[in-house]
């Protein structure tokens, strides 16, 4: 069993995660548990680049942990932990920053987007964020990293940094590969389907939160922006309906052409109703589990303590090796 490959990924506790996060990432994390050894974590250190509210961060971190468990991540088979509990992440990030060029970080589109969005707080952490993400991945020698398409550029940079380090100091890091789902790698906003669905969007009608009650879900899909035409057909010119087709395909486990066939004589209104229904039906059991798990603070504490202990063992051994290679005494 130990020769199974290792999958690793993280999610920021910047909000209750959305249907986009679920379809693009967390759903893959869950499926990968069958085939891979898995390490998943809550990237609280990353969220410090945008969140400056102590109580908000604290409560969200626990809620996201409970939600990941409710989504079906197993702590028996996997390691699930909170990033800041494993100090090696910050330490390796520093080493990797010294192997990363200013120009490389400046090219990151997420940095450009977030600097525009948070003009009053373009901090150095936001700029160096991809080196912390590289540390997260390289500490565990991950084989695959399940992510949505927006993180692909960060993963490419991780590969560049790892290769550069290996060339300079000798074989140290495994070069990770991204795992990006074929359907749903970028779920779009319901109010502006040319924009990614994001949990930090000011307009709450633009995203489905994993904790939205069924009526809210039905309402948000009903109001979702679609195109003027009335054919339920997937196409680049019709991002609104294509987004809904993708969501339906994901939850019904049927292909996009099969969705088109199934709804070929239906109206947009009927289709939106069907999408709302399938999403609400799939989220309800997760929400029930979430409410039960969140009440059990002892259990949550125990999960993250155990996870951090297991993660630290692996991470500290990689860090020790790195420190030797670079010449720290
Ligand atoms: P974040 O919310 O930025 O921490 O993202 C966590 C994971 O969800 C990452 O792998 C992202 O690529 C993925 N993700 C975020 N938003 C979306 C979206 N709208 N569609 C698909 N995947 C997404
Ligand atoms: N940067 C990722 C995001 O915003 C979250 C993340 C942090 C991550 N570290 C990671 C994802 C390591 C994969 C692997 O979505």
Textual characterization of the structure:
With 329 residues, this protein is mainly alpha-helical. The protein folds into 2 domains: 6-179 and 297-326, 3-Layer(aba) Sandwich (Rossmann fold); 204-291, Tyrosyl-Transfer RNA Synthetase, CATH 1.10.240. Helices cover 55% and strands 7% of the residues. It has 13 helices and 5 strands. The strands form 2 sheets. A 3-stranded parallel beta sheet has the order 1-2-3. A two-stranded parallel sheet has the order 4-5. The chain is globular and about 70 Å long. The two termini are 36 Å apart. The mean pLDDT is 96. The structure holds adenosine monophosphate and tryptophan (TRP). Residues 11-12, 20-21, 23-25, 147-148, 150-151, 185-187, 196-197, 199 line the site of adenosine monophosphate (AMP).
List keywords for this structure.
329 residues; mainly alpha; Rossmann fold; Tyrosyl-Transfer RNA Synthetase; 2 domains; three-stranded parallel sheet; two-stranded parallel sheet; 13 helices; 55% helix; globular; binds adenosine monophosphate; binds tryptophan
Query: Looking across the biggest beta sheet, what order are the strands in?
Result: 1-2-3
Structural class: mainly alpha
Number of domains: 2
Strand percentage lies at 5-15%
Number of strands: 5
Average residue pLDDT: 96
Under the CATH scheme, the architecture of the largest domain is 3-Layer(aba) Sandwich
Q: Could you name the ranges where pLDDT drops below 50 across 5 or more consecutive residues?
A: none
Listed once per kind, the bound small molecules are: adenosine monophosphate, tryptophan
User: End-to-end distance, in Å?
Assistant: 36 Å
Helix content: 55-70%
Number of helices: 13
CATH topology of the largest domain: Rossmann fold
**What's the story with the biggest beta sheet?**
3 strands, parallel
């Amino acid at each position: 069993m130990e020769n199974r490959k290792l999958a690793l990924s993280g999610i920021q506790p910047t909000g209750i995660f959305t249907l986009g996060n679920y379809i693009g990432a967390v759903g893959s994390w869950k499926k990968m548990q069958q085939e891979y050894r898995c390490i998943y974590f809550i990237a609280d250190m990353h969220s410090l680049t945008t969140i400056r509210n102590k109580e908000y961060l604290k409560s969200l971190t626990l809620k996201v942990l409970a939600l990941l468990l409710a989504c079906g991540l197993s702590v028996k088979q996997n390691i699930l932990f909170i990033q800041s509990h494993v100090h090696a992440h910050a330490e390796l990030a520093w080493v990797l920053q010294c192997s990363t060029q200013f120009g490389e970080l400046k090219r990151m589109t997420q940095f450009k987007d977030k600097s525009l969005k948070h003009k009053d707080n373009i901090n150095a952490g936001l700029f160096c964020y991809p080196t912390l993400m590289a540390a997260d991945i390289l500490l565990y020698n991950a084989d695959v990293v399940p992510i949505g398409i927006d993180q692909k550029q960060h993963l490419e940079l991780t590969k560049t940094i790892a290769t550069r380090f290996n060339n300079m100091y000798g074989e140290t890091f495994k070069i990770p590969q991204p795992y990006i789902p074929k359907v749903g790698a970028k779920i779009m906003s319901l109010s502006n389907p040319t924009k990614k669905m994001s949990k930090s969007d000011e307009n709450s009608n633009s995203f489905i939160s994993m904790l939205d009650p069924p009526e809210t879900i039905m309402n948000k899909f009903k109001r979702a922006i679609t195109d003027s035409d009335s054919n339920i057909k997937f196409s680049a010119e019709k991002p609104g309906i294509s987004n809904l087709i993708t969501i339906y395909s994901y939850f019904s486990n049927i292909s996009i052409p099969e969705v088109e066939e199934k709804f070929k004589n239906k109206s947009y209104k009927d289709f939106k109703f069907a999408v709302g229904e399938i999403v609400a039906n799939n989220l309800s059991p997760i929400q029930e589990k979430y409410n039960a798990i969140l009440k059990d603070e002892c259990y949550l504490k125990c999960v993250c303590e155990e996870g951090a202990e297991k993660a630290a063992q692996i991470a500290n051994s990689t860090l020790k090796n790195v420190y030797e290679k670079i010449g720290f005494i």
